[in-house]
């Protein structure tokens, strides 16, 4: 891998241009380069130093319009992270595999009666899961089963519970539940990737100071074989077609002085996240395609899914550890007993896992005890009305701002209410005397982004086919979460990465 200027990138024709350097983009680029193809990655963000707080590198000019509880705000967050390595440099490392129900949900859950599903099977993803878990060094239970969910064999043994996770596990066990170690893309001890976690910062929201967290720069791109070039601080503006169904070039904005240039490639892969990839196609409208590139179905940008979530926290009377700097791993324990149940609307529940808080304002107060926090997470029902679209107003680059038009399905709200009740039971059993729910504001921005270019058999009701290729274009693919018809109940990063490898292997 080498970093090049956008000026140099504009002088070559690459075999493949990948838009986005995050979870899916890095995997796609590495796989294609190892097959002998020349690959260019375009990344709008820049390299982030170790130990950096995400709040210190946010750029409000890139934020979107989004619905909030009282109307619209200009603080929608349309990213996993705008950075080299994407969301993987700031995420908590939670690395679940999906189950078959997440890939092939009941037809009534898919939002459109005439939608033809992509029919992706879990056994198709399994070799790609294996590859990604090995490259990242994912740890987790070697074997286990809760209901219909089976943990596979992971590359390494599970990491020890955090002190808070141990308390939560004891609480779950007292309720007759089956607490399991959260599968994590984090090195707990010295291994081939580095010295292991030193608990210097919280995981979520910070780049790792010691390379213990499996970001795709250190674990994938730095080890990739072949011709991989990366142009940072380079924004993809719009595609230009050479003929119907064939993208010729991609207009980009970057360089010094900042100006528009064109990048040429034989193939293009969208890997910028479900919001940004859809927005790029919508910005690529022209005389032949006034509604956006690849949008003959009218489905580009629709069925945006954010994953519904809420935090539930409580305080123990006794302090769990003598000093609690809140620098532990984000999660070490999960509860999967409530993936489904008759008490949930449609019998579809979700997952509960330890989600250590970023701060505890009472940590230094004598007798304050310890703060325990869980996150409840569930996949949202696809709705065509939930969409990415473009506003009339423009940002400093002169491009139309993004609108994230999202509303929670009422049944998903009911599911989340039931799930957080289950989480409160765990907290009480773990010794928390009072509990409260804390809004995650997922509707105004989430790092769990799905839909907008969903895959399917019928070009009239989907944007891409099961290989990720746009129905309307021979040489453009989507490899990020945009292709997912249903968000699934689990943290999506590992599945996005496994699916990206599956798509990359099939690109010819």
Automatic annotation (TrEMBL):
Protein name per its UniProtKB record: Oxidoreductase
The species this protein was found in: Streptomyces kanamyceticus
PANTHER family: PYRANOSE 2-OXIDASE
Keywords, in A-Z order: FAD, Flavoprotein, Oxidoreductase
Glucose-methanol-choline oxidoreductase C-terminal domain span: 382-500
Family: Belongs to the GMC oxidoreductase family.
Coiled coil: none
Entry keyword Transferase: no
Cofactor requirement: FAD
Pfam families: GMC_oxred_C, GMC_oxred_N, NAD_binding_8
One GO MF term attached to the UniProt entry: flavin adenine dinucleotide binding
InterPro entries associated with the record: FAD/NAD-bd_sf (IPR036188), GMC_OxRdtase_N (IPR000172), GMC_OxRtase_C (IPR007867), P2Ox-like (IPR051473)
Annotated Glucose-methanol-choline oxidoreductase N-terminal domain residues: 82-304
């Amino acid at each position: 891998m080498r970093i090049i200027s956008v000026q140099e990138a504009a002088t070559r024709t690459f075999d493949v241009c990948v838009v986005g350097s995050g979870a899916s983009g890095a995997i796609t680029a590495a796989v294609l380069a190892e097959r002998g193809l020349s690959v260019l990655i375009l990344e709008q963000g820049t390299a982030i130093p170790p130990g950096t707080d995400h709040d210190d590198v946010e750029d409000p000019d890139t934020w979107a319009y989004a619905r909030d509880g009282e109307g619209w705000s200009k603080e929608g967050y349309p990213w996993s992270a705008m950075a080299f390595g994407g969301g993987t440099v700031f995420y908590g490392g939670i690395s679940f595999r999906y189950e078959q129900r997440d890939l092939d949900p009941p037809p009534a859950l898919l939002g459109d009666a005439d939608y033809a599903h992509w029919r992706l099977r879990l056994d198709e993803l399994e070799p790609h899961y294996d590859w990604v878990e090995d490259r990242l060094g994912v740890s987790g239970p070697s074997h286990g089963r809760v209901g219909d969910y089976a943990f596979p064999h992971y590359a390494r043994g599970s990491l020890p519970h955090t002190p808070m996770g141990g308390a939560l596990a004891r609480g779950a066990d007292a309720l007759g539940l089956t607490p399991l170690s959260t599968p994590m893309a984090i090195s707990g001890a010295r291994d081939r990737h580095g010295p292991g976690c030193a608990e210097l910062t919280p995981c979520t929201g910070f780049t790792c100071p010691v390379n213990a967290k499996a970001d795709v720069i250190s674990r994938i791109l730095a080890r990739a074989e072949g011709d991989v070039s990366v142009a940072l601080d380079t924004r993809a503006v719009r595609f230009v077609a050479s003929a119907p169904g064939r993208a010729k070039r991609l207009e980009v904005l970057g360089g010094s002085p900042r100006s528009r240039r064109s990048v040429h490639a034989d193939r293009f892969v969208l890997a910028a996240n479900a919001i940004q990839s859809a927005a790029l196609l919508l910005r690529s409208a022209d005389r032949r395609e006034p509604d956006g590139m690849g949008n003959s179905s009218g489905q580009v940008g629709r069925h945006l899914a954010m994953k519904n979530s809420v935090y539930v926290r409580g305080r123990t009377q006794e302090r769990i550890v003598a000093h609690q700097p809140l620098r532990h791993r984000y999660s070490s324990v999960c509860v999967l007993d409530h993936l489904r149940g008759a008490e949930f609307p449609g019998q579809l529940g979700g997952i509960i896992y330890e989600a250590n808080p970023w701060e505890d304002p009472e940590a230094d107060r004598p007798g304050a005890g310890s703060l325990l926090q869980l996150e409840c997470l569930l996949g949202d029902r696809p709705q065509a009305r939930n969409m990415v679209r473009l506003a009339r107003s423009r940002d400093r680059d002169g491009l139309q701002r993004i609108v994230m038009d999202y509303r929670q399905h009422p049944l998903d709200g009911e599911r989340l209410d039931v799930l957080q009740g289950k989480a409160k039971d765990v907290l009480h059993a773990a010794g928390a005397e009072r509990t409260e729910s804390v809004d995650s504001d997922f509707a105004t921005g989430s790092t769990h982004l799905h839909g907008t270019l969903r895959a399917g058999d019928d070009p009239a009701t989907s944007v891409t086919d099961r290989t990720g290729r746009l129905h309307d274009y021979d040489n453009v693919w989507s490899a990020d979460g945009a292709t997912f018809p249903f968000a699934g109940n689990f943290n999506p990063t590992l599945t996005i990465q496994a699916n990206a490898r599956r798509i990359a292997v099939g690109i010819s």
